[in-house]
Amino acid sequence: MFQQNSDPLHGKTLQMIVEHLVAYYGWDELGNKINIKCFSDNPSINSSLKFLRKTDWARAKVESLYLYSLRKQQWALEKKQNTEIQSSAE
Predict the structure, then answer these.
(1) 40 belongs to a structural domain
(2) d(CA 73, CA 57)
(3) Residues 75-89: pLDDT tens digits?
(4) C-alpha–C-alpha distance, residues 83 and 45, integer Å
(5) Closest Cα partner for 37 from 53, 48, 25?
(6) Tell me, what's the pLDDT at 75?
(7) Structural domain contains residue 25
(8) In which domain, by residue range, is 27 found?
(9) The CA-based dihedral angle spanning residues 60, 65, 41, 51, taken in that order and rounded to the nearest 10 degrees
(10) Is 70 part of any domain?
(11) CA separation (Å) from 2 to 5, 71?
(12) Which residues contact 9 (CB under 8 A, 6 or more apart)?
């Protein structure tokens, strides 16, 4: 029997997570949300990955922000769908 993993980070690489956050927030906002030098001083994916792979507390913050951004996207989608349903009912 196949069991589905309920961990939202399962199968996600650190690079995928950082790229998602950069696309979602941009480097400036990401640096504001998580105050680490690799996000605010000459940021790049490679320098960020190098730092995050060595620093557990920073990686935990990045993973937490990633999960939050996924929830925000889901909330926005649900709100849009509810608005469309209400509009079509009128």
Answers:
(1) yes
(2) 25
(3) 888 887 777 777 776
(4) 37
(5) 48
(6) 86
(7) yes
(8) 14-89
(9) 20
(10) yes
(11) 10, 26
(12) 17, 63, 66, 67
Place of tokens 């029997």: 1
Residue 36, φ and ψ in degrees, nearest 5: -130, 145
Environment class of 47 (CB within 10 Å of its CB; exposed 0-12, middle 13-18, buried 19+): middle
- Whether 4 maps to a domain, the answer reads no
Mean pLDDT (whole number) for 2-6:
68
Q: How many domains does the chain have?
A: 1
Task: Label residue 4 by pLDDT band (50, 70, 90).
Answer: low
pLDDT confidence of residue 77:
85
Query: What's the CATH code of the domain at 61?
Result: 1.10.720.30
Read off the tokens for 68.
Answer: 């939050």
Give 48's contacts (C-beta < 8 A, 6+ positions apart).
Answer: 18, 38, 39
Q: What is the mean pLDDT of the chain?
A: 90
Tell me the pTM: 0.81
Amino acid at site 73: Q
